[in-house]
Amino acid sequence: MFCAMPAAPLPDDSPDVERPREYALLPVFGCALIVLWAAWWIAAIAQGQLWGVQNTRIPAWKFLGLDFQHNYDAARFWIAGHNPYAEDFGDWRGTFAYPPVVLPLFAWCALLPRFAAYVVWCAFVGVSIALGSAVAARTRDALCLIRVPAPFIAGLMLWSLPVLFATERGQTDVLVLLALAGAAIALRRPPSWGRDLLIGACLAVATWIKIYPAFALLGLIPLRAWRAFGLGALEAALIGLVPLRATMQWIQTSAEAQKDRVGFVTEINQWLFHRASHRPAELTLYPTISQDAHSLTTYWSTFWRHFDLWWLERMPGALGALLVLMPPTIWLSLRVARSSPVVRARLAYPYLLWLAAMATFLMPVSYDYNLFYLPLAALTVWDRRDPWLITAVLGLATFVWWQPMVLPWFEDAEVFMGLKLVSLLGVGVIIARRARDIEESQESPGSAALRPGA
């Protein structure tokens, strides 16, 4: 039988916990960033294109909301009684590219003209990031870290490359963020069937929106939320089975869109049984890495070829990505699984964010508009108590790819890819350190682990 994870007390429940230090100017600075972000987007909406884009690394389109238009047109076509998986709904990129659950999520688009709907979506992105930032600030309080107010976190996130890129394209990854935040909040509540149904539903819907959040659903296993995982798996199956015909059509169209890619098993066989001098032509193709992309699966050969490591270059991308990403994922997951219920509850949010960020590196098509989970996880768990070397390396690596402006000192896309991987590993190490801090504080209530910035 499935069992539930015990509830964990908030830090306010413990009289021995020293309150995190507050910084009065951070909320003011954060609110100023939010106001500037809103003004910037008002100017962009007024001219129909991202304002000042020539000074950023964002590959802006000739009009705002390119990807939003795909969902908008498909949802209206579906509301009118047509099938966007089998019929032409007016998008030059072909049939609808996302799972069937996305269509009802955009049914509201039937009420508004396209550009007005995009403006609403921009506002929704901002609100979603603000909510995710509020959960991050609350989690920092639960971890007894330096108090960083939610407006400051939200301001930093809104001006990051991933969020600006996602807003310009009108991407839907913020829906996944809300689902992860909802699941993390529910994991702090006393166990019940209703709570676990909610957790499972959040992660099941997130999985069907973007696929890669399936790793967050699997993350319920190390969090020992067994019943929530079982219900989530069942709910995910139902979401796919209820519109079975549409689901099968989506799978078929997705497979056809990827038919030119070499299959995973075929790549492994070619790599194992062909000599270097007889390599198939497919493995000699090196897709160009973009500074705003981070699919380790797709760009594996290109990345290692840049560093002249031919023996890694010839490895299939999917296999190489798994060999790089699975060891730290398994290590962090085992660390979380071995922790106490209090640790698992308080670290659920950054851990789920980290899993979602890691999974984006495995996707064949993955641009930086879906990588905002990583800096948000970093802002949730970083603290002054971390060793200066970790702080320096993680801070530099994250700053280079996170901020949106062009940096003349960093032009190689391979360097950007490496820095993103360093950021991923660094945040994973800090999450593990926070688990250790909580355990030390439980063993010794007066320890330095409870004194923020000690």
Q: How many strands, which pairing sense, and closed or not: the largest β-sheet?
A: none
Category by helix and strand content: mainly alpha
Compressed to H and E, one letter per element, the order equals HHHHHHHHHHHHHHHHHHHH
Instruction: Tell me, briefly, the overall form.
Output: globular
Discrete helix count: 20
Query: Mean of the pLDDT scores?
Result: 86
Account of the 3D structure:
The N terminus and C terminus are likely disordered. It is built from 20 helices and no strands. The protein has one domain. It has 454 residues and is mainly alpha-helical.
Task: List its salient traits.
disordered C terminus; 60% helix; mainly alpha; 454 residues; 20 helices
Summarize the structure.
60% of the residues lie in helices and 0% in strands. The chain is an all-alpha fold and 454 residues long. The protein is globular and about 65 Å long.
